[in-house]
Write a structure and sequence with these properties.
The complex is a heterodimer.
Chain A (H helix, E strand, L loop, with lengths): L2 E4 L3 E3 L5 E8 L7 E7 L5 E7 L6 E3 L7 E6 L4 E6 L8 E8 L6 E4 L3 E5 L2
Parallel strand pairs in A: 2-11
Antiparallel strand pairs in A: 1-3, 3-8, 4-5, 4-9, 5-6, 7-8, 9-10, 9-11
Chain B lengths: L3 E4 L2 E4 L5 E7 L7 E6 L6 E5 L3 E2 L7 E6 L2 E6 L9 E6 L6 E2 L3 E5 L1
Parallel strand pairs in B: 2-11
Antiparallel strand pairs in B: 1-3, 3-8, 4-5, 4-9, 5-6, 7-8, 9-10, 9-11
Classes of the chains: A mainly beta, B mainly beta.
């Protein structure tokens, strides 16, 4: 079955960086894009961008340009999302979610990784 | 960015009730709208896509309609496992955006 297993919770100080991983299994890793979505406490979901694991191409939401890097490792079927210069309002649950392409919904999501930014 | 307004933000209903949730887009999105169900601490589950297409394995109690800017999710004959939060997503234009969610609670 399709599984997206994410790395564990992180606590970071303002100005630090965080790198969250998402290991995929149960399907052809390079046949699906991987989105990253976050949800801050009490807020709605926010799309951050996506990566095409087949060629490493990315499409980031403008809001995160300059602070976000998505990458992939085909040998381990893992994608990564790194966010730099963290602020307290970056505190959220970060989730990976696969999609057949950008203009398509996500049929499987990871369980999410809580990132807490606090001094 | 396309803004999605969901209503109501929460509702209370009983088992076997039928409920309807609406999602309004700030501009035309064709039928590029999905609905998800999420339970506390769990990953979202895709219910419907292209506004009305039922995802494989999802109960036929869930149905969707709409196009353009106005969309609805209807859950007929609510079951205990249906009490959750529901949210919409548009994938017509980047950045993809989401509605604020509707919590369906037991009356």
């Amino acid at each position: 079955q399709v599984l997206l297993v994410q790395s564990g919770a992180e606590v970071k100080k303002p100005g630090a960086s965080v790198k969250v991983s998402c290991k995929a299994s149960g399907y052809s890793f390079t046949s699906y894009f991987m989105h990253w979505v976050r949800q801050a406490p009490g807020q709605g979901h926010e799309w951050m961008g996506l990566i095409n694991p087949s060629d490493g191409s990315t499409n980031y939401a403008q809001k995160f340009q300059g602070r976000i890097t998505m990458s992939g490792d085909r040998s381990t079927s893992t994608v990564f999302m790194e966010l730099t210069n963290l602020r307290p309002d970056d505190t959220a649950v970060y989730s990976c979610a696969r999609g057949i392409r950008l203009a398509h919904p996500s049929d499987y999501w990871g369980d999410g990784t809580l990132v807490t930014v606090s001094s | 960015d396309i803004h999605l307004t969901q209503s109501p933000a929460s509702l209370s209903a009983s088992v076997r009730d039928s409920v309807t949730i609406t999602c309004r887009a700030s501009q035309v999105i064709g039928n590029s709208l999905a609905w998800y169900q999420q339970k506390p601490g769990k990953a979202p589950k895709l219910l419907l896509y292209f506004a009305s297409r039922l995802q494989s394995g999802v109960s036929s109690r869930f149905s969707g309609s709409g196009s353009g800017t106005d969309f609805t999710l209807t859950i007929s004959s609510l079951q205990p496992e249906d009490f959750a939060t529901y949210f919409c997503q548009q994938y017509y234009l980047s950045p993809l955006t989401f509605g604020g969610g509707t919590a369906v609670e037991i009356k």
